[in-house]
Amino acid sequence: MAVLNRLLRARGTTAVNSIRRFCSTLKTEIDLPAPPLSLKKPLPLGRGTGDRNVQWVFLGCPGVGKGTYAGRLSSLLGVPHIATGDLVREELASQGPLASELAKIVNQGQLVSDELVIKLLSKRLEAAEDKGQSGFILDGFPRTIRQAEILEDVTDIDLVINLKLREEALLAKCLGRRICSECGGNYNVACIDIKGENGSPGMYMAPLLPPQHCESKLITRSDDREEVVKERLRVYNEMSRPLEEFYRNRGKLLEFELPGGIPESWPKLLRALNLDDDEGKKSAAA
Ligand SMILES: Nc1ncnc2c1ncn2[C@@H]1O[C@H](COP(=O)(O)OP(=O)(O)O)[C@@H](O)[C@H]1O
């Protein structure tokens, strides 16, 4: 990890080479030219035999549903879904030396340091590599321009999906989030029903209720409290929103406005990604 720390202090050529060496253990094919990106036909990008798997990123505000759609696409495409928020929470739960400092940061809705997130992400990518997995769908990383630059130095990202949802739904979705403490299933008890007015359409998102055997084991994330969610939304706008421009300038950004809940949004997302004719896989992920 000293290599990463050096890189984070000075992103000079030597440091970049160091991280390239480091990341070559992750088999991220640093020197491969990025496959030509066309949002009309983003697939099959690197899905053929002997080629690498997709390397995608999900952007979007807290509560937008990055985890839900990244998870579904990861099952569909057979690539690991890597959520840095989950990695941070695992580190917190491990009660290691960093746990109490981390808890303070996360529960105030702030970002943890780039150094720590990169360390956790590198470990996770190494584990994926050890399991013979290739490609990834990143969710929650990068979250700052600095993280995006570091990622760009070490690998090619094919596509960045920017999920968008009406502002009034975001807070309610975060506050409605529930996790089963036993099986880890993610649910949402919020029922979002925005009436259409003055020409703007209404929107309905049904709750995603847990099965009966999970009902008594539901917990709420400690950072899904109203004041913390509002701070996370503010931090997102300040630190992460500039990533849209960063990836738009590179021709990698796919903007996707969620039209409603999973039943309406999932087929439309598949269509936007040119995955909709793959019926077998679609049902496998449903
Ligand atoms: N890439 C990152 N950089 C810095 N902090 C991160 C990153 N990813 C996750 N975190 C930390 O973990 C918390 C939870 O992340 P996540 O589950 O992705 O939340 P959200 O629902 O806000 O998208 C964040 O508020 C932040 O403290």
Automatic annotation (TrEMBL):
<keyword id="KW-0547">Nucleotide-binding</keyword>
<dbReference type="InterPro" id="IPR006259">
    <property type="entry name" value="Adenyl_kin_sub"/>
</dbReference>
<dbReference type="GO" id="GO:0005524">
    <property type="term" value="F:ATP binding"/>
</dbReference>
<keyword id="KW-0808">Transferase</keyword>
<dbReference type="InterPro" id="IPR000850">
    <property type="entry name" value="Adenylat/UMP-CMP_kin"/>
</dbReference>
<dbReference type="GO" id="GO:0004017">
    <property type="term" value="F:AMP kinase activity"/>
</dbReference>
<comment type="similarity">
    <text>Belongs to the adenylate kinase family.</text>
</comment>
<keyword id="KW-0418">Kinase</keyword>
<dbReference type="Pfam" id="PF00406">
    <property type="entry name" value="ADK"/>
</dbReference>
<protein>
    <recommendedName>
        <fullName>adenylate kinase</fullName>
        <ecNumber>2.7.4.3</ecNumber>
    </recommendedName>
</protein>
<dbReference type="InterPro" id="IPR027417">
    <property type="entry name" value="P-loop_NTPase"/>
</dbReference>
<comment type="subunit">
    <text>Monomer.</text>
</comment>
<dbReference type="InterPro" id="IPR033690">
    <property type="entry name" value="Adenylat_kinase_CS"/>
</dbReference>
